[in-house]
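Batch manifest, entry 17 of 40.
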Amino acid sequence: MQPEKIGRYEIKTELGRGGMATVYHGYDPRFEREVAIKFLPPEFVHADPQFRVRFEREAKIIAQLEHPSIVPVYDVGEENNQPYFVMRYMSGGSLSERIKTGAVFTIEEAVKILEQIAPGMDEAHARGIVHRDLKPGNILFTNKGVPLISDFGIAKFTQGEAGNVTGSAIIGTPAYMSPEQASGEIAIDGRADIYALGVILYEMLTGKQPYQADTPLGVAIKHITEPVPRILEANPNLPEWMEKVIATAMAKNRDDRFSTAVEMIEAIKSFLRGEAPPERKSSTTLKVSRYNKTIRARKRRRNPIPALVIGGLFLAALFGSGVFFLLRNMLPLGFEAPFPTSTAALPIETSRPLIEATSSIGETAATAPTEVTLPSLPVIGGGDKIAFLRNNDIWIMNVDGSDLRSVTNDGVEKFNLEWLPDGQTLLYMAGKTVKTVDIDSLREEIIFSFISAEYFESFHVSPDGKQAAFSLARELFVVPFDLEKLSSATKKRELLAMDGCLFYNKIAVKDALWSEDGKNLAIKFLAPSNGVFADTIRILDIKLCQDSEPVRLDEFPGARFRFNNEIINFDWDGDLLFFLNSNVRNGGFGDMGLYNTFTHKFEKLAPIEGNCCYRDATFSPDGTFVIFAFQDIRLGTDSSINLYYLPADILSTSRTLESLPLPDGFFTRRNDAPMPALRPAQK
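Output type: structure tokens
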């Protein structure tokens, strides 16, 4: 029977049911939104005692995988010993449903869909996460027709969906399964998903799958043994170069495939423009840094169970699908490849507290500070160094662009970058963990992890270094910046027991910035606006702390001025002025505006020759300069990302301006979010 509730989620209807999971359309009363809930059967827990350990570990990794091209996982829980996932509800249907209508896609139509999901696939692959069940049914559309990838990585530990060959021995759907998956190789990497993307493209352009057989096992065997079908035989109206695209994407040897999904899409677009794509390296020299080099050097290990099944293909043909499913159910669990366990990808690490018997970052009772005479640095706008993100790693340079170097190299997605008051330490967030890194020793430490929270979106230390304001589960906490207590807090009651300045749960708070004197907070929260929820900024007076309810000093945009419902980034000079950034393209580049809380005037800014698009506008330490990222919308997909550090008083005029002198092509991804942070000049 259909349950009425799963956890706090109200169940509306069943969306689909397979042999390994049931998906429901639900409603989240707390955040007033539609959700999809994937309910996993309890027999996995009983059949394999390690299932729960793997489930919880891998769920934490997947929860970190936030990308505009991937259906987000909101929550993970358990109901009556049955694990479940809560995901965004996608009301626009699936690519599978569109293919089943019988319409054959044009190349342009296919590219328009696939190019929107390709960056999400590459992002996951860069972090060692492989989908392994990419198919049209897992490409879902929003109500506005935007495609997103569903179940990214979940198939790895749900043991797949109904119709998978041999249950847990081989993960995937036979029609879209790479040869290495079908043959039972344990070491599967992201190129298995590239193969599936080639199969999907073939199906979109011809209306049928490349391999046909009477049984799922027969289809899987053809992926191993038969050559790549010629797509022009299925659709003679296609250009000849499409043969090369499909043959490369579906190459039997994974070294001969496109190395990334974006590379595949860019090759097609080059052909459409009448250009030849760049010549690819041979399989003997192609080295993709995103994949595990240890796997590349190791002799391929094969799972013996699939080999036995393949050897019994003729028996399956004699006895039909009944014997196939009998064999499938008899196979033991536990043959899947282990999920990446690199500490760089895990949201929780075992680490000693950052501070031992001291209140100063980077200094312990056993180590006294040593005075060192340092060369003077250029100072602009009251700052001397810039920290920013590139390809998910932290880089720093002087404010004039000199002395550029990286301080992390794990490639794990980061945000909330800021300098701590000591000027030596950078604080940032990765997933649901707050970490620091020393810019000289490159030593990284964990400050605070709260993996059980549905949302952990910001963490900011007050200017004097004594308090921390953070949004946890869309509730605002202001507590002492006590590293020992924070590092051991795993429950809400432990945070409340810290006797902090403020706990604020009347609205859904997403972020909080400190004023210059530490007496006010500017919070970003979700407010109802014309039937939808819109990001709104509210300034709170918290100087009386626990003694009274915080006083609301201002609130905007609201009735003050019109702005996008989503505020990607906002920054405060700590006094009167706010920068706001909206989202127009590439995950956060859009309009930039300046709001004055004294005059209540808002001004839209477009300093680079009057053009879009900007992101991450941030005030310099003395408020006289601003740093921001710019991507010229006029150049389309060829637009690069540049950083500008300019006097704030020239932003109202449109002109040609010089960007910071970074190397050409320094930012390699169009959706990079630099999130720059400026260090106050060190005396």
